[in-house]
Structure formats: C-alpha cells, structure tokens
Amino acid sequence: MSPSVRLQEMIRVIRGARTQGEERGVIQRECAAIRAQFRQADNGTRSHNLAKLLYVHMLGYPAHFGQMECVRLIASPRYNEKRVGYLGAMMLLDEKQDASLLITNSIKNDLSHSSQYVQSLALCTLACMGSAEMCRDLAPEIDRLLRASNSYIKKKAALCAVHMVRKVPELGELFTPAARSLLSEKNHGVLHGAVVLITELCERNPDTLEQFRKAVPELVLMMKGLVMSGYSPEHNVAGISDPFLQVRILRLLRILGRNNDTASDAMNDLLAQVATNTDSSKTAGSAVLYETVLTVMDIKSESGLRVLAVNILGRFLLNNDRNIRYISMTSLQKIVQTDHNAVQRHRGTIVDCLKDQDASVKRRALELSLALVSAVNIRSLMKELLLFLSSCPPELRAHTTSGIFNAAERYAPSQRWHIDTILHVLTTAGGDVRDETVPNLIQLITTATELHCYTVHKLYRALITDISVQSLVQVACWCIGEYGDLLLRGECEETEPVQVTEDDVLDALETVLQSHMSSPATRGFALTATMKLSTRITHNVDRIRSIVSIYGSCIDVELQQRAVEYNALFKKYDHMRAAVLERMPVIDKSSPGHTNGESAGGTIKELEPTKLTQEIVFPQEPSNQVSDENDLHLHNVFNDHLFLVLNSMISSDRFFFLFVAIAPPSVTVYEKNGVTLKLQTDTQTDTGMTVTLTATNSTDGDITGLTLQAAVPKSVQLQMKAPSGDVIPAHGLGQVTQTVLLNNPNKVGLHSDTVQIDSFPSTAW
C-alpha cells in the first residue's frame, strides 16, 4: 500500500485483513507513512493524513502522535483543514493534555470569524473538550455570541454555555441575562438550547431558580403553542410537534414548580391539557406523556391531576412496548405510598405483568404488587402472589417469599390464614426462605394456642409427604416435639382427623434423622423432638432411649452433645425428665431483645403471669444458628416460685441447675427435716445483685456446722460474706443469715442467683 493511498482504500485494505496480525501490520505501515509526511513541509495532504489517523484511532490503535498536527490544522486558514483539525482535537485531545491549551487562542480567533461555519466549529470543540481554564478565558466570547442575531450561532452558543456552567458553576451569573432573553426566540433550535441552559442554571443556583420562576407563564404559553399548533413538517415527529422541545420544557417546569404553590398553580391547566390532548400510540407521544406524569407528581398539583397522571401510567401498562411498561411500573412504584388508592385501581393490570416474559418487567411487577398489598385485598392478592411463586424464576424466589412473609405478618386476617400461607410458601419454595423464617413461624405457632392441634396435624402430613425442604421439616419436628400428644390424640376440629400411632411419629422422625438430605440443624430439631416425645407417649420410651443413645457417638459434635445430654436425662436425672421436657412457654416477640432470627436472646414470659412477674433475660446466642429455639428449654415452676432452666450446653458430668428470676422477692428454696432455707434479693443494679440467704430451724435441737455454697458462671464474680453464725437455734428462736454479692461487669446475660444446694447429712441434727 503506497503512502499516498486514499482513506477509502486504506479502510478497504484494513477490512480485508484475514487475521489480527495482518491488520496490525497494515496499520503500522500506514502510521509510519503518516509520521513521515507529518515531518515534511506542508504538501496539501495534512488533513488527508489526519483523517486516516482518526480512523486508526477509532479502531483502538495509538494515535497520540497526531495531536500537534491537530493544533497546526486548526490554525490553518483553509476551512477543510480547519474542520479536520477541530474533529481531531475533539477525538485526540482532552483537558488533561497540555496540547489543549495551545488551541485556546485559535478558538478565540475563530469565535470572531466572519463565517458562521468556522464559528460553529470552534463552539462545538469548546463544548466538547473545553477545560475550566479555557471556559474562564472564553466565557465573554460565548456571552457575546448568545446575543448574536444568527440563530444558528445562538443555538450552538447556548449548548456551549451549558458545558461551561457544568465546568465552572460561577459562570452561571454571566449567562443568566442572555439565557432569559433567548426565550423570546421563534427558532426551535435556539429555544431548545435556551431551555437546556436555563435548566442547568436553575439546578445549580437557588437564586437563579427564584429568578426564572417569573418566566413560568412564558414557558406555559410556549408549551401550549406546541400542543395546539397544527401540522408543521419541519418539527413534526409521529404526529407530535417537536416532542424534544416539549420534553425539555416539561423538565424545566418540573424544577420551577417543585415546592412552590404559585408556579404549580400556573402550570396545572397546561399539564391537564397536555395529558388529555397527546396521542400515546406512538413513542414520541408516550415520551411527552411520561414527562408530564413526572412533572405532575413532582410539583404541588391538584388531586384530580394526580389521578389523571396515574391513569396515564395505567394505560402505559397495556402498551406492547416492554420498555414503556417498565418505566410505567417504575414510576408507579415511586408514588404508590402517596397515591395508594389511585394506583390500586390498576392492580389487575399490574398483576398480569407478573406473567410477562421479560425478567425486568416481571421484577418490577412483583415489587409493585407487594407494595399494593393491604388489609382489604390481602386474600385476593396473596392468591396471585402464591400462584406466581410456584412458577417464578429462581432469582426472584427469595424476594417473593420475603415479600409474602412481610405482607402476611402485617395484614393477616387471622392466625390460621397466616400459618397456612407460610406453610404454603415453605412447601413451594422452602429452600429460598430467609434463616429467620423458622423461629418466626415457631413463635407464631406458640401464640396461636387454639390452633396447636390443627398445626401439628398439618405439619405431620407435610413431613411424611416430603422431607427435602429443610425449613419445613425443622418447623414440623419442633411442633411434633411440643404438641405430639395432640397429634396422637387424633381429635382435631379444624381438620380431618387422622389416626396416628406412636410408631408412625417415631418412624417419621427417624426418617429425618437418617436422611442424607437433612442438615445438621434439621437433625438437631428431630433429635430434640424425639426426646420431648418421651414425656408425651407411653409405650415407646425404650425406643426413644435407643434412638438417642445411637447419636451419642455421632460424628457431628452438636448432635453428639445433644444426645449425651439427653442420655443423662434418661439415666442420672430421669426423675426430672418430665419437668425439663415440658412445653415451651409463649415467646413474646414484641418484647425488648427479640429480633428476627435472634429469638434465643429475647425476653421470655411464663404463660401464667401469677407465677412469674419478673422477666427472665438469657444470654445472647449467635443469630446464625437456626436451631436457637431448641437450644433453650424453659420449663415449669419449681415449688411455684423458681424456674428450672436446662441449657443444651450442659454435659453429663457437670449437670447443675440455674435458679433465675425469683418472684416474689423472698423464696423458700429448701424445707426438709425442720430446716428452712430462704433466699431474698435485696438490691439489684445493671451489673450487680445482693442476695441474702436465711436459715431457720424448727426442730427440738440446735443445728451446728452450717455451711452454704454457691456456684456461678465464669462471666459472673461471686463474693460470699461471712455468715452471721454456724449454729441455727432450735424451735425457730433464731436464724443464720449470709450475704452473697454477684457482679456481672461485662453484662453478659445476668443470671439471678446461681446456687447449688447440697443435701444436709443426717448427722448434722
């Protein structure tokens, strides 16, 4: 290829290259030839060579060596060379290049050129790559051109001024008077540039915004002229008169009318006229209507006008263009909270969009449908959402289930409906629900006391049908463990009675324990449920003992620990098993410390408030353990005053009890063979507690050598004061007291009065 080859020939050769290496070779040879000619004197081919170099730059190859040639061509008096030079400057130069400063003087000279085309070249280049320094130097020239008589120049000068204001915002004050005068122009190009410039000025300066609010009537008249004007071939686009200018004016009106009653009132009639007279069958009309809707929603418009805007968006939902449907739902999503009733009228159309094939439209429809759920339509709309859940794409399942749960929790018409809805979701998409779903559902079930029988029957049927959904299996195991006696009784008014035997229930739990689909957390639920059934059934306790003992050597540490502890209950502490494994009390979800997915650290209250008036606060457990509900066993009253708490972390060789939440203040903790021991909480602070132990003797002889011992967790500091004596007088004539100080400096879930009471030897009295 010869050095003097034409641009068209070079393009043909490059396109004809069969490999990238061949293309690279052609370009390297041509660039070498261009460099050589750049070093020669002006031979009339400079613009031709720069044009070829610009094509090479478009292909992604280095072309920086042509920057100085651009500067030379811009300074050339020939128009064809100046045009290519300015084009090269816009492509090869930017404000970071030092060479850009070299063309500032040339641009200033060309802005005063006698030819409007040369002036336009300089204006376009300055608007494209002018730096802040160039803008400051040339701003007076642009202001002068804004007042020129040539509409062609004023249009380009307005757009150049927009670039300058963005680069140097303080220049806005210079252009404000000229921009205001441009609104009286008749040329649509000038008007378009003027509206864009005014919009930029108003967005950057509140004072300028107030100044241009006086021009709202003028803008309204301009917009009315466009809406009501007849056919104009020069400006008509699909039957709409200059939709580009209409959109720009509507955007400016939106800025001017925001938070201003006077400006908003002045444009209300215009917006209603645009909304009713614009044809939405074409894209141009839809664009104007969309901007109209955004303006109506952003200013202080009348309520009827807002309803009209929502109806326009409702019509957009029926459009065949998915892009229009998408922007319609995006806009409805923004206004659904403020205009809920107006959006609610289009609920049917929005729900139909859930069936759209486009993933983006489907996601927007889902978000809008969830936002439309209310106490009035919860039943009908939830049916549609559950139907969508059964066929929705995998990437939307988690969002759908979360939205359904939130809506059901807020607007559930009844507890049974709430439970049925959550169970339906777990059955359909249980693998996509959030971690806190299981404890939340368990809490809901515990509060619905009259539905325990119905729930356990329904969950048992779900368990024997499918054990692959872990969240559903966990809830089912928990309910069977808590309410297994109701399941075995077979009497349920809410559902069809099913005769279930003890073997059937244990078979189902064993299936869960042995299934490869069960996670460690699920097996923990199943093992605990099996253990709890040992107090709810009568004929299969030995089988339960066998199941539990098997997992005492399980490879999973958590499961093994549970099994070891449960084995200890069977052997060493069998006399306490019934009390330890009684039903969980109702968990008050609204109490302090209870959050979604962190129910183990919440506040727990007894079902019978007469037995406990003080709240019990337990230490926080990590929120990522799904089995938190099973890690805490809160059981019945000990001597009608103390709760007996067994935590699953207690192993068989360190089995002890925590006495917590004493109420009333004085409690009898030991009363046998004439000896009575009372415990009283005297004072309590955020980090400490003072406890007084009082011993009395009602026998005929004195008791000597009295010793009291206490144990506390490692996080609590214990200090036992000296007792008042070591002899308890007979016939209750005296008493022995001892003060115990408990300090919890780290505030780690304070346990009140952790005490171990040994048996008194018979020889003591």
TrEMBL record:
Q: Name one GO cellular component term.
A: AP-1 adaptor complex
**Which residues does the UniProt record annotate as the domain GAE?**
662-765
Q: What keywords is this UniProt entry annotated with? A: Cytoplasmic vesicle, Golgi apparatus, Membrane, Protein transport, Transport
What family does the database annotate? Belongs to the adaptor complexes large subunit family.
What this protein is called in its record is: AP-1 complex subunit gamma
Q: Which gene encodes it?
A: AP1G2
User: Where in the cell is the protein located?
Assistant: Cytoplasmic vesicle membrane; Endomembrane system; Golgi apparatus
Question: Membrane topology type, per the record?
Answer: Peripheral membrane protein
Q: Please list the GO biological process terms of this entry.
A: intracellular protein transport; vesicle-mediated transport
